[in-house]
Design a protein that fits this description.
By secondary structure, this protein is of the alpha/beta class. Helices cover 38% and strands 16% of the residues. The strands form 3 sheets. Strands 4-10-9-8-7-5-6 form a 7-stranded mixed beta sheet, sandwiched between helices. Strands 11, 12, 13, 15 and 16 form a 5-stranded antiparallel beta sheet that branches. The protein has a 4-stranded mixed beta sheet with strand order 1-2-3-14. Strand 12 and strand 13 form a beta hairpin. Helix 11 packs parallel to helix 13. The longest helix is centred in the C-terminal third of the chain and has 23 residues. The protein starts with 10 loop residues before the first helix and ends with a helix.
């Protein structure tokens, strides 16, 4: 797609949008009086722009969901066509576009994950996957990693490991957290990936043993943790978790809400590791965010639990026709334009080498990690000690170095994804090589701001 140029600047219209937002919109994860949301006038491809005529290259993909870029004409047309034909219908009926979306998703999920329970987004998908696991096993506990994010609904926020859990934590509500593998900041004093894998698995096995294997319904993992730092697991780790689950009758739930649908250069991140979970959650990229849709892909074994007893869960808009039409069109576009393969090449040939080259020149870059269109730069004050550029969960003045880095990116026309002491490089999977080089050049300049805070 050729990027659409911004329309003529209209600051007055932008001011009106901002005024209504500030008067009436309650924003998530924010102190309402301390935020200043950008008023967006439009978007196309890898870019969006404001009412003042400033255009930004989106290295955040919204919230890591515009995998095919903004305003793809075939997906927009499919939504319009579906709205004219059948805009909505209740979930208890068989509807052509709902059936087609489920079939296309099932064709791409690993193994026998051939039944699709539709939700409105990722958090609801995780909620229902956990409910299915508990009902299937008859066990109460669920294990998840500290460095994780699984959503903001009741069970999903308790599963989450990052600080967003803390204000809503109800004594973990049957959730037990453990340390997943993360060699750069190893909790296990590991020296290489093999040690990190072995020690992380031993820690998880001990956690299961001390919690009582017969009480654990599921282990829930982001296949590649996203918001927590984009940490591809070491070779053998997911296979080891699968074996541990099988040994104790525990279900393996892989959360692919962020990593799925091409983001890692495969349809699902699980494909890189040859592991088939019992349940897989998805959202975001399935429609490229054009209409909200999520779901749970269910194995035959788990689905069989609900052949003769009702599954006690549902949503008014489960499998909404507009969302399913967006999913069908998105999946077809991804096939036609070979977007999964493009994401893989983008990571191997452009983003990976380009980010590693930046790391060689900037002392603020402690580690580069990722795959496909899913990367993170870990920013540090001191490479030798690996002290983060800002403290864990920093805010206010303590977060000033990262805030300055983010501001420098935006000033250069790049919209970054900043999380704690990291910047994530998560552009649309359709990013061109020229766009990638444009973004890397802005990152290069912005990293000099971070460099000023190193020792």
């Amino acid at each position: 797609m050729t990027p659409h140029l911004p329309d003529a600047a209209d600051p007055q219209a932008g001011a009106a949008v901002k005024a209504d937002d500030r008067a009436h919109v309650f924003h998530s994860w924010s102190a309402q009086g301390l935020i200043d949301p950008l008023a967006v006038a439009g978007a196309d491809g890898s870019y969006f722009w404001d009412y003042d005529g400033n255009r930004y290259l989106d290295f955040a993909s919204g919230l890591v969901f515009t995998n095919i870029g903004y305003q793809h004409p075939k997906v927009v047309a499919a939504i319009q066509e579906q709205a004219a034909r059948l805009a909505t219908f209740a979930p208890a009926f068989a509807v052509d576009v709902r059936s087609e979306a489920a079939r296309l998703i099932a064709e791409r999920t690993p193994g026998d994950l051939d039944r699709i329970f539709f939700t409105n987004g990722g958090a609801e998908a995780v909620e229902n996957a956990v409910r299915m696991a508990r009902l299937h096993t008859g066990r109460p506990k669920v294990l998840s990693a500290y460095r994780s994010y699984h959503g903001a609904t009741s069970t999903a926020i308790n599963l989450t490991g990052d600080p967003r859990r803390w204000p809503s934590d109800t004594a973990s509500a049957g959730v037990v957290h453990f340390w997943g593998p993360y060699l750069y900041r190893s909790a296990f004093y590991a020296q290489d990936e093999a040690q990190e894998c072995a020690r992380a698995l031993a820690h998880l096995e001990d956690t299961v043993a001390y919690e009582g294997p017969g009480t654990v319904a599921a282990i829930v993992l982001e296949t590649v943790p996203g918001t927590a730092g984009i940490m591809p697991p070491p070779p053998g780790y997911l296979e080891g978790v699968r074996e541990l689950c099988d040994r104790h009758g525990i279900l393996l739930v892989l959360d692919e809400v962020m990593a799925g649908f091409g983001r890692t250069g495969a349809w699902f991140a699980a494909d890189h590791y040859g592991v088939v979970p019992d349940l897989l959650t998805f959202a975001k990229g399935v429609t490229s965010g054009y209409v909200p849709l999520g779901g749970v892909a269910i194995s035959d074994r788990v689905a069989a639990s609900f052949e003769r007893r009702p599954y006690p869960g549902g949503l008014t808009y489960s499998g909404h026709p507009l969302a399913c039409a967006a999913a069908v069109a998105t999946l077809r576009v991804m096939e036609e334009e070979r977007i999964v393969e493009r994401a893989a090449r983008l990571g191997e040939r452009v983003l990976g080498p380009g980010l590693r080259e930046l790391a060689e020149r900037h002392p603020s870059v402690g580690e580069v990690r990722g795959l496909g269109a899913f990367w993170a730069l870990e920013l540090v004050r001191d490479r030798a000690t690996r002290e983060p550029l800002v403290p864990y969960n920093a805010s206010g003045e303590a977060n000033a170095p990262m805030a300055a880095f983010g501001a420098a990116c935006k000033k250069g026309g790049l919209w970054p994804f900043v999380a704690m002491n990291r910047t994530h490089v998560v552009p649309p999977c359709t990013l061109t090589e020229a766009e990638a080089k444009e973004g890397l050049a802005v990152l290069d300049a912005a990293l000099t701001v971070a460099d000023a805070h190193t020792v």
